[in-house]
Write a structure and sequence with these properties.
With 178 residues, the chain is mainly alpha-helical. It has 2 domains: 44 residues, no CATH class; 86 residues, Arc Repressor Mutant, subunit A (Orthogonal Bundle), CATH 1.10.10.10. It is 61% helix and 7% strand. It has a 3-stranded antiparallel β-sheet with strand order 1-3-2. α3 packs across α5 and α3 crosses α6. The relative contact order is 0.10.
Length: 178
């Protein structure tokens, strides 16, 4: 249930105090980091959900449409979508099923692999994702709650955390042209 007023005390700071009081000082910083990131995720997702609700989109459906709209021809193999979105294949399948049901995307046979499917954004899907992107840009992304330097620093730190967890590697340098 959403709150209308801020809490008088930061519950995460209180949790850290309790962690230390219970002898878990070595873990207190990590617990505070994890809990803070999770809470920030909840706050940002609430803003995103509120912005996407008038468009009848969840963030998962929005991401899939945006991914398809970014491609040159508005299509990509299902396996590529799964890899890029970094979610379980069942989640992608369910998201695509709903997009197809709402005529925002279509499935087509893969031109080479008869077992695979191509995902294709429809004109209605492209129109909807463009309008939803404009709303997200205005209501969330242009003012995420930090200034530009702070935003860049948080992104840099989280990228270090993600890379350290094996989420991605640095791209290999391209060979010099012959």
């Amino acid at each position: 249930m959403p709150r209308n007023a801020p809490l008088p005390v930061d519950p995460i700071a209180e949790a850290k105090r309790q962690w230390i009081a219970h002898g878990w000082e070595d873990s207190a910083g990590g617990m505070t980091l994890v809990t803070s990131v999770m809470r920030a995720h909840q706050l940002l997702l609430a803003r995103i959900d509120a912005t996407l609700k008038p468009f009848g989109l969840s963030f998962a459906r929005y991401e899939m449409l945006r991914l398809l709209a970014f491609t040159r021809q508005g299509r990509m193999p299902m396996a590529s979508a799964i890899a890029r979105l970094q979610v379980h294949p069942t989640s992608v399948t369910n998201t695509v099923d709903r997009l197809v049901r709402d005529e925002l995307a279509e499935r087509e046979p893969h031109p080479v692999d008869g077992r695979a499917a191509m995902l294709v954004i429809t004109d209605a899907g492209r129109d909807l994702v463009e309008r939803a992107t404009a709303a997200l840009n205005t209501n969330v992304f242009e003012s995420p709650g930090l200034d530009a330097d702070e935003t860049a620093e948080v992104v840099r730190l989280i990228a270090r955390l993600r890379k350290g967890a094996g989420d991605f590697t640095d791209p290999r340098p391209q060979p010099e042209p012959l």
